[in-house]
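ASSEMBLY PREDICTION REQUEST
Request ID: AP-0331
Submitted by: J.K., bench scientist
Number of chains: two
Total residues: 565
Priority: normal
Notes: Please return the full assembly, not individual chains.
Input sequences:
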Amino acid sequence: MRISPANTQRIMVVALWTLAAMTVFTLLFILGYVLYHGLPHVTWSFLTESPRRMGKEGGIFPMIVGTAMVAGLAVLIAGPIGVATAIYLTEYTREGKITAIIRFGADCLAGIPSIIFGLFGFVFFVITLGMGLSVMAGALTLAIMVLPTIIRTSEEAIRAVPRSFSDVSMGLGATRWQTVTRVVLRSASPGIVTGIVLSIGRCISETAALMLTAGSALRMPHSALDSCRTLALHFYTLMREGISPAHAWATASVLIVVILLINLVAYWLMRRFVARTV
Amino acid sequence: MKISQDRVIGWVLLAVAFSALSSLALITTFIFKEGVPIILKQGVGNFLFSNDWYPGEGKFGILAMIVGSLFVTLGAMFIGAIFGFGCAIVLTQFCPRRLVSIIKPAIELLAGIPSVVYGSIGVVILVPFIRDYLGGPGLSVLAASIVLGIMVLPTVTSISVDALQAVPRAYREGSIALGATQWQTTWMVVLKAARSGLVAAFILGMGRAVGETMAVIMVAGNTLEIPLGLTSPVRTLTSNIALEMGYASGAHRQALFATGVVLFVIIMVLNTIALAVSHSKAAGGRR
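STATUS: Completed
Returned structure:
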């Protein structure tokens, strides 16, 4: 029996919409599940106290500080390097062999799984450079990990700036560097910031690479050379070792709320950016 | 001396621009330097195709993990491709604009959720379900495939959306004008024109699935046997590294780096294929 084209159309539309609906439902389910099981346990003291008895009691303040330090440092290192790379690729050279090689490096780096970054960070930063399991080793590892994202988003943002802007600036006698810093980067900044914000999100949710580089100390990190445990790793440990499901989901909901906020900010910036360039 | 200032800045930027490439070189060097000696000592064939992983006795064979990674990745891609391509087709072909602005951020958000959260949801929802209704321990190839499938979906979707959007509007309009239905147009014209981009999306998604670690550890069971079916527990290459790195030393640690070398090679092969395919797409687009 042949199904007529009109019926195939109907069947496929229903099937495809079902897939899309299931995807959105999955997202809502995950968010709902985590927040439902976790939010009731998130209290002020949970956010501001140190954990006691391996995290069974007390709070997650040192993990919040550790996560912020690792993510902040990583982006502080990768941000300037990524933006500089993007400036070079877009403003200081023509497409050719060199840009192809640089892009190849970034593309390959983007595909490497986080556990490999973890192995590398462990043998290079932790052991060879003698940093030990520390905030710094974790941050440097993550900086390399998010570098390709920052390069790509900054490059797209800079390319979206109309050519006439820099032509006018150069025509008025500005040097290339003045043009880049005062005209091009200013117009591209929402796009660049979006990339950086998304990278912060990736750092916050990373676990495998940090397990091998930043360690899992429950203490408060006082300097960049102290070991720290990030929120995601704390959640994993509480969950896996069955220490305290309530505290685990509470940690996860803090994590999810932060990720939601980061995505909202990125989305808002992106819309502003698109609105301005179109 | 304004001109020379610009030139100096150009050189500095060029030097900085090479940091991604030099990081890649450093990573490759260190992983291989740590891992390759033990592979050679064990013998390549012995390391890759033996199933004896007894770190205490100095026996390192990773066949079970290679097969495990393969099974889990194929399972994940089955789910990830159906949903990923489905969502991409809906977003680009059938969806009113207003709904796009809801579904697209939702899928992007799915990419932002930490892998440990996926793993935990898998443990509390999926694993008991599989144990109760399909048998086995619940921690299984199937559980890992489903969790990973959801995790690679955003990668597959976002790259496919780009590929589908790059198909010239005229193709679509021409097909519709000739009396084809919307689905016929999508199936016979749009998907065909975007083929290489879709292949790249699939392969990059595959790379994600092979490389994912934390979620897999939580739901896969991690036993050291070659899985016999969908409900058997498995250990993947990635989970082998993450599980044992904490306490390994000496030859054992080197063997874990060697596992990393195998993973690294697999990922590089997949990436190169994806890059080659998407470059041929760029060439096709210009035609």
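REVIEWER COMMENTS: Chain B has one domain: 34-286.
SIGN-OFF: pending second reviewer
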